[in-house]
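hey m, so remember when u said the tokens were messed up on ur end? i reran from scratch. heres the input so u can diff it against urs
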Amino acid sequence: MEIHLEPPHGAGPLGIGMTVDEAVAVVEPWGGSRVRTWSKRVLVTVLTSCDLVGVEALLEDGNAVTAVELWCPGEGKETSTHVLLDGADVFRTSADELLRGLEERGLPVHDADGEDPFVPGLSLGFTRRTSQEVKRTESGLPVCFTSVLVGGADYYAHRL
């Protein structure tokens, strides 16, 4: 299976702006989901997985999907699902290579600490944070990203 990232519109079948009911319906073929309500920043989340790839639709205003986050399967786990950004597999291509490709397209990448780069013009964010035993660079960062977030337009404007 392939999940295509389409910033700032969504990821796979999950679109920015969907209601909770719409989000639950589009992930049903993956085996169902859980809906959780929170009292803090993220008010509602729709959690599911697609062949060990974790997927979470965030409804930060409680009404509509504002972002979709996906996680790699985890230490020692393999998946046949590919999370693709312009043809590159986000969890199997080196993070440095992915970021270089974005910069070559003229997209500014903000990467202050190396662990949580984001591309405000695409409303796209990544993380390399993990406690798992994974292949790492000489500086200690995981070689590949461990999660990716697609937000709606201007999702990262507050971080600039």
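this time it looks ok to me. The mean pLDDT is 87. if urs says something different then somethings off w ur setup not the seq
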